[in-house]
Design brief:
There is one protein chain. By secondary structure, the chain is α+β, with helices and mostly antiparallel strands. The protein is built from 4 helices and 10 strands; from the N terminus they run ααααββββββββββ. It is globular, with a radius of gyration of 26 Å. The chain starts with a helix and ends with a strand.
């Protein structure tokens, strides 16, 4: 028996033995197999949080008053520094725009306000694409967004990643940087809050 014939019998043993095998059956089985693969991919996407967007009800979780601290990396010394911080988040006009007012009790000159816009389709925070969305073991929602930019004392090109972790009573906003000449992610700063 030829090698090809042996291979065919190995892959489709019942197909070649059956006298009533028709092309229709092969097509039906191929369609069923493709449907099975599509269903598996959908299930994997749901279980791994690949629907990478913020829903409207998730935006509402950010709104409120928060109290905690800012920890940031001083690039000059290479050491982290922490200070108390308060944050007030409110809606700014449209449902997808938020106003963040930061207050630093020990350094009031650092107080500032910034605005965040979430795209209408929920796939971008400002102009940073949401690349991951998942749930933590503590039932918090975690979003990661990335963009290209520059950072550091030398203003070097880098990939900048923002990580948002939101729960009923806690919020973390973390900025990480990976310079183009490195494979290491560096924690640039992290705000860690509890709801007041």
């Amino acid at each position: 028996m030829s090698e090809t014939k042996t291979m065919q019998l190995f892959i489709f043993p019942n197909v070649l033995k059956s006298k009533h095998w028709k092309m229709k059956t092969l097509i039906k089985r191929t369609i069923a197999f493709c449907a099975f693969i599509a269903a598996c991919n959908l299930l994997i996407a749901q279980n791994t949080g690949l629907e990478t967007k913020i829903e409207k009800e998730e935006i509402s979780q950010f709104i409120g008053n928060w109290k905690g601290q800012l920890t940031y990396l001083d690039y000059s010394s290479g050491t982290p520094y922490s200070m108390p911080c308060e944050l007030s988040i409110s809606r700014k006009g449209q449902a997808n725009k938020l106003s963040l007012a930061y207050a630093f009790p020990n350094e009031p000159k650092a107080n500032n306000t910034e605005k965040i816009k979430i795209s209408k389709d929920g796939k971008y925070i400002d102009k940073n694409k949401i690349t991951q969305k998942s749930k933590t073991a503590e039932d918090q929602i975690k979003f990661i967004s990335e963009s290209r930019g520059k950072d550091g004392n030398d203003n070097k090109p880098a990939t900048i990643r923002y990580i948002y972790v939101i729960g009923d009573n806690d919020l973390v906003i973390r900025k990480e940087v990976k310079f183009d000449d490195s494979n290491e992610w560096i924690m640039r700063n992290e705000f860690s809050f509890n709801k007041v």
